[in-house]
Amino acid sequence: MEKQRVEWWHRRSERLLKTGLFITLFTIGLMVMYALHVLFGWNIPFDLLRICNQWMKSHGWLSVSHLLETLVLCTFVLYISYGLDQWYGSFRAMRRFRELENHHLSAVYNERYSPDGQNVFLIVACEQPLALTMGIINRRIVLSEGLLSLLNEEERQAVLHHELFHYHQHDPLTTFLLRQSACALWFLPVVRTLALHYKISREILADNYAIERLGTAVGIGGALLKLVKRSRSRLEIPARMIYSSFADTSLNYRIQRIIDPQSGASPRLPWWSILVSLPVLILLSILLLWSLIE
């Protein structure tokens, strides 16, 4: 992939992440101020949701104000419960992977490929092809014996570099934050779209990193093709964990980008998600400006 094209994907990835986090902080921040007022009676300046709620009550729309309070409560419950569920799922998955660990192969791969001699790679005794980077603080790259036996040496190297990109860039953390936001802010579908497209961008950049390190696209392309053929028997990775996986996102699109980087349009954000979400954000912004004037 050309250098300019790679930089374009980096900028796109950064924009998607920043936009998703901005929408999340803006919306959750308003709800936190509203909750503080309801629970403790704090009169925080420019509490948009409280102003909106009082305005609806003054017009006799009690049912709407109750819906607003319900929305705030559901958002907090979803945000916290999703995070706890993912943390617990990651803990259980890591415990299972350690039970299945092939200590000899893990030592070999850590000695040969691990940066600074750290215990980064964890090879598990599993026949199904599996390659992912999981965790936030103590990140590990998990590979299965089935994957290593399926791929030739060049393809194995490509997968290793692909996962090392996720490892160095802290991709499990950033994808987790966007997925958590998409779950809690379900009434803003653009957040879910941003999370999906961000994940695709990170996978393409990880593919390109592997190509740059090896000097050829043969390895990563061959690995993706073999995993597509094995997709029916591929291990279903549980969603209840914090991870970035090699083979669960846009396989066909990534193969097309490798075969011909100049062909095919880049994935675009669906207009319907923007059209549904934008009026909500615009309404909040207008009310915020109005509260500043008041």
UniProtKB/TrEMBL annotation:
<keyword id="KW-0812">Transmembrane</keyword>
<keyword id="KW-0472">Membrane</keyword>
<feature type="transmembrane region" description="Helical">
    <location>
        <begin position="64"/>
        <end position="84"/>
    </location>
</feature>
<protein>
    <recommendedName>
        <fullName>Peptidase M56 domain-containing protein</fullName>
    </recommendedName>
</protein>
<keyword id="KW-1133">Transmembrane helix</keyword>
<feature type="transmembrane region" description="Helical">
    <location>
        <begin position="21"/>
        <end position="44"/>
    </location>
</feature>
<dbReference type="InterPro" id="IPR052173">
    <property type="entry name" value="Beta-lactam_resp_regulator"/>
</dbReference>
<dbReference type="Pfam" id="PF05569">
    <property type="entry name" value="Peptidase_M56"/>
</dbReference>
<dbReference type="InterPro" id="IPR008756">
    <property type="entry name" value="Peptidase_M56"/>
</dbReference>
<feature type="transmembrane region" description="Helical">
    <location>
        <begin position="271"/>
        <end position="293"/>
    </location>
</feature>
<feature type="domain" description="Peptidase M56">
    <location>
        <begin position="53"/>
        <end position="255"/>
    </location>
</feature>
